[in-house]
Amino acid sequence: MTGxxxxxxxxxxxxxxxxxxxxxxxxxPHALDALDAVRAGGVRVGYITNNASRTPAAVAAHLTExxxxxxxxxxxxxxxxxVRMLADRVAADARILVIGGDGLRVVVEEAGFTVVTSAxxxxxxxxxxxxxxxxxxxxxxxxxxxxxxxxxxIATNTDWTIPVDRGIAPGNGTxxxxxxxxxxxxxxxxxxxxxxxxxxATARFHAERPFFVGDRLDTDVRGAxxxxxxSALVLTGIDGxxxxxxxxxxxxxxxxxxDLRGLLxxxxxxxxxxxxxxxxxxxxxVHGTALEVVKPGEPIDLIxxxxxxxxxxxxxxxxxxxPDAVLRLRAELR
Length: 334
Known about the structure:
Elements: E1 12-15, E2 22-23, E3 26-27, H1 31-40, E4 44-49, H2 56-66, E5 75-77, H3 78-89, E6 95-99, H4 102-110, E7 114-116, E8 125-128, H5 136-145, E9 152-155, E10 161-164, E11 167-170, H6 172-183, E12 188-189, H7 196-205, E13 210-214, H8 217-226, E14 231-234, H9 241-245, E15 255-257, E16 270-273, E17 276-279, E18 282-287, E19 290-295, H10 299-313, H11 324-327, H12 329-333
């Protein structure tokens, strides 16, 4: 038996970008057609990203090149959330030391703040975001400024990694950690998994029933859950079955999708049968210290059933024997 589609009666669909809509320079399979169908159904679409290195206009241009009719005001970035936080904490004419690239600097300037480049310029706050050209001198300036324990420090995000064309590289979290090691304190954070980015997006779209889709449990899903939004994990990006089975309660999505087509498709009911969980024709159970596949069914349904079985078992996933066939399921979806 199936239920309603995950998107349901939502009025705004919010999506992470890399791993959800595109991978590097290319669109994720089926993503463009699915988003066209969502728009055709009258649901607005917004894109939210922790990436602080690109402006909303640059992100919108990338999406347009892929075939989506995206505009800059449909893109909500962690620098925009950081600026919203600044507006609540410092004066409108404050001086801001920006440690980051154009994606951060432009947004801070557009908000009316004065951007400075040195701790010697007596900034009122430090805002730090990722840019590939950042170096030791930039981090040192942040450290010098933050020697004053009362000076506000906002990080756009603390993602440990960032996907690039050649693979996975250190993200803003590593740069923030370097400054933290020097100054002995932590910043307030604007991006996922903290809620300011979600709150900024909700306010931007005047959303009453937002729905969020991401590909990472510890940032995307955790943040949406904290913000009170229903969330879906799509298995086209970073996290797969192994990470899903190990997800802690705060990181568990309401829905698990093979790709974005699942937003508008009826979602199968989760049925609990004694010690087993059935989703579609797939049945899984935890027996002792083993996850068992009772009936395989469709790969995506087996992933859903296995996750529900593990989550409800109370047995830590690292104490379980998990069949290789379950861990390899994502390969069958592509």
